[in-house]
Every structure is written in structure tokens, then in C-alpha cells.
Amino acid sequence: MDRPLRYRRILLKLSGEALLGERSHGIDAGIVGRLSDEIREIHGMGVELALVVGGGNIYRGGEAAAAGMDRVAADHMGMLATLMNALALQDALENREVVTRVLSALEIRQVAEPFIRRRALRHLEKGRVVILAAGTGNPYFTTDSAAALRAMEVKAEVLLKATKVDGVYTADPVKEPSATLLKRVGYLEALERGLRVMDSTAISLCMDNQLPIVVFNIRVPGNIQRIVLGEDVGSIVSG
Predict the structure, then answer these.
(1) Topology classification of domain 9-238
(2) Which residue ranges of the chain lie beneath pLDDT 50?
């Protein structure tokens, strides 16, 4: 008997770094392939899936702005980097016979559909994986904020935040080996303690709309499937 799904519509937030693998820059085809295999598996279980992908493996607008570039121009360049990652994911998924649509907050009609909320919802209802690129289309907003916003717009039941660690810690576990994993965290606690979950805009948006955030380790194969089946994976940020 098939196991019941805890979540039937999810938004998965992937950072650009999740596509790096052991590389220092760019896209690792092996990592993209493994992620695509996992997405195909949960899609085959009947989960409606939207993705928001970052672009830090290619370009970081914040770093360029800090080095003296105009912030708006730098952020627009970062949005284009997310579109490159979205196209790489689309190619890998469609090679696995998963029908996808890339919707971009910046209009580049030759390679992606413009983001229109009702169109995104229709694609999900038709069983297509929707990859949401170019953040919110606005400078000064991170892809974390874009993920929270899009999750609300497509009526996702949960926001899955993929990271390199097992969940939310009291401090950076890479720098502080004594840091403790927190399995349950409140929105206000995450904000007040400055826990590195997502940026404050994204957490506040989720808090205002009571959207749970699951922070988990994307490097552990099968974690996405375990979450949608209701297993205790990572940390949950909620009310």
C-alpha cells in the first residue's frame, strides 16, 4: 500500500551552491542529475512541485554591489544567473521525462514564460514541475524572499529550504562544532536570535501567513521524499 503524503504541494528552495558539488564555480552535472532523479521520484508520487533556485554558484549580486557596482544592476545580473540554473534543471528533468515549465520574473520569452500566478497554478494542476526563476524581479530582494512570496502565491503547503547542514543550529556548525541542532523553532525565535534560517523578510512573510518552513540537508539522498511522507527530517520553523 502506498504511504500517505503529508504534503501534496510544496515549494522547494534550492540555493545556487546546491548545484556546485565539489566545484568552486558553475554547475555540477552530476549533482543536477541526482537532484532531478529525486524530484522525478516525488513528482511520480503525486506531489505538485514548484522550485525557486538561486544563482550564487554563478554570480552574487550582493558581493558585486559591495565591491562598488550599482546595486540594482548587480541584482539584475544575479537574477539572470538564477535563470541559467533554472534552464539547467529543466533540461535535466525533461531528459528524465518530467514535464517542466520555467517561469521568469524577468521577461525573456525566448527561454522562459513570464511569471503569471494563474499560469503557474495551472501548470501545477496539470502535473508539471514549475521552476521559478529571476527571484521577485526586483532588486534588493533575495531568492529566499522570492521563495516565501512564490510559496504563498502558488498555495504551497510548506516551504522546503535546502541547505548543506541538517537543519537549524544555534550557530554555524561549520565554525562552531558545539552548535546544537534545533528540531522545532518559532518564527519569532528565529528572528530574535538571528538564526540562519532564511533572511528576515522571508521569515516574516511566512510568519504572517503561517507557512511552515522545513530546513534540511539536501546532500542526503532521499530527504525530500522523507519530508513529503511526514518523516522527522531537519528542522521545522513554524508558529
Answers:
(1) Carbamate kinase (3.40.1160)
(2) 1
